[in-house]
Amino acid sequence: MIRLLLLLVTLGVAAAGWYGWNDYHRYLTDPLDLPEAGETFTIEKGWSAGRVAVELEQQGVIDKRYWFDLFVRLSEKAGGIKTGEYRLMAPMTVPDLLDTFHGGQTTQYTQSVIEGYNWRQTLAHVAASSDLQHTLSAEQLSSPESLMALLGFPGLHPEGQFYADTYAFPRGTTDVEFLQRAKSTMDRVLAEEWADRQPDLPLETPYEALILASIVEKETALVSERPLIAGVFVSRLRKNMRLQTDPTVIYGIGESFDGDIRRKDLTTDTPYNTYTRAGLPPSPIAMVGREAIHAVMHPEDTTALYFVARGDGSHQFSETLSEHNAAVRKYQLKR
């Protein structure tokens, strides 16, 4: 009788073990019950693997949380679960789910720094983002000194310091983190291009190159023209000619500029008026991308010293002042 009882207990334990193993195996291989459109799940900072399991169960992503807890412990990935917002899409199994959390494959959002924007426009664009977490006050957004000190660059003017590009980031990224990333990207790109620059450029520092790149950026939207326009400015600097570029004059006028540049604007002296002052202005005048920076570091070898807008986005280049004046009459004065 005792032997029979022991046999029955043994068989019961074996059956329970077999059932448990099969149930566990099915739990890991069966797809999760996710809606066709997917499910959004957010792991907050400080959550343990146990807390993640509780939230997953409450949201209906998983059931039988004890199997999930066991799998996490056996996988030894509990400490590698990363915070962020995730988009869970079918077909996905529990191992897929944990791999997603462990790999930090979070939902990504995007925000751009626009080429040609000045620092005020750039910060307004960042402040209008619905995907960034906003921490900057109105005072910090309007004060270049306060902003750059907060970002870790006290005394540096923000103009031109944020690399023009589109950045992807996870939910929870702050405006400060975004700007610091754009600044560090600018530093890296500028250093790379400076190290690979043409020899004997009339530029003493990477900052001077950035200033000239911002002028090239504002002068033309055509990537193909940028090396030639950079070549004109480099030739002028070598000959100690004034740059005489309207975008710097407009920048010097500031927020009072009404859209029309007049003769008196060209003769009214400001630190940015390259008609009244020789050399480069004291700072960049806009945000730039790699194309403008590269054009300045590798300007086209040209004998042209002048250019004028044709009215279709392109420019007419001239070697002499008389040729330039004729081009101005043709394209600007329509004579």
* Total helical elements: 14
- Write down the overall mean pLDDT: 89
Portion of residues in helices? 40-55%
Query: What proportion strand?
Result: 5-15%
Widest sheet: strand ordering? 1-2
Estimated radius of gyration: 31 Å
Structural class per helix/strand content?
A: mainly alpha
Q: Tell me how many strands there are.
A: 6
**Oligomeric state of the chains present here:** single chain
Main β-sheet description: 2 strands, antiparallel
Distance between the amino and carboxyl termini:
119 Å
What form results from the Cα inertia axes? Answer: elongated
Low-confidence stretches: none
SSE order in H/E notation? HEHHEHEHHHEHHHHHHEEH
Count of domains: 3
Features:
single chain; 335 residues; mainly alpha; Dna Ligase, domain 1; 3 domains; two-stranded antiparallel ribbon; 14 helices; 6 strands; elongated
Please specify the SSE layout and strand pairing.
Elements: H1 2-29, E1 39-43, H2 49-58, H3 65-75, E2 84-88, H4 94-103, E3 108-112, H5 119-127, H6 138-142, H7 144-151, E4 166-170, H8 175-195, H9 206-219, H10 226-238, H11 246-253, H12 263-267, H13 290-297, E5 306-309, E6 315-318, H14 321-331
Antiparallel strand pairs: 1-2, 3-4, 5-6
